[in-house]
Design brief:
Blueprint: E1 5-23, E2 28-36, E3 43-47, E4 52-55, E5 60-80, E6 87-101, E7 114-129, E8 134-144, E9 149-160, E10 168-184, E11 188-194, E12 197-203, E13 206-223, E14 229-247, H1 251-254, E15 263-274
Antiparallel strand pairs: 1-2, 1-5, 2-3, 3-4, 6-7, 6-15, 7-8, 8-9, 9-10, 10-13, 11-12, 13-14, 14-15
Length: 275
Amino acid sequence: MLASNTVFAQDSTRYEVYDAIHLKDGQILKGTILSYDSQLGGISFKDIYGRVYNFSRADYSFFKEKQSFEIKTKNKKTVNERKDSGIRYSLGINAFYLQGLEKIENDNLNTRKVTRGMGIGLTGTIGKYFTRSHFLGASAEIGTAASSSLYNIGVRYNFEYDDKKSNVAKYIPIELKYQHMSLENPGIGDTVVYSNGTGITNYYPKTQFSTMYLSIGHGFGFIMKHGGSFNIELSYQRHFTLSQKFYNLKPQDAVGYNPKFPQVNGFRLGFSFSF
């Protein structure tokens, strides 16, 4: 699709200098004083439209030479055309934070376990516009970091709601996805035997999840000349656990270690290019 653009006008201010006559009926004429009779006060005056007047002293209150007048002008602003049909591709990078709380009885809240992770992900989307306001597509992501790893796949819907009179699009992204991820659990004390005694160190087991999640957020798309955009968005994720299992547990700690994490919450900050 060939890109085009639209021009919108915006107000700006400049100043122009004219001679001015303030008439007694309240009018102010702008133009040029052609001649002035200093004895009788008569003025020959040419206004900005080329009309010539001859005023007696009784016709005006006062006159002023080289008076500045504020002039409102229109500056033309180019608004790039937005892609509103056909296939769109997006590639981006995300920063994410995920946290799950153990489901536990109220009288045991002080012992509640937390699993969490944060990291960086790469994401890709392919989909189709159904008018500029509605986009539907498939999306996938893979992410990794020291405390977490994940991959997901699902559907994505964008609703664009701004008036399309600027080069910044505003939209609401909604995703429904399946995700596989591992998050880090709290440390467990481990007794270590040294040549001169023993000590306690912590190690960190992990929880591996399969979830379905729903996310909703807000984004800004900065429209480029070729019709694509650079996008920034922040979204909230609500994960519903399908299955979970633990790993990196030492045998002596595996017995009885079974915290339940039915839900995981997450936040994601994303940057992407669409074309």
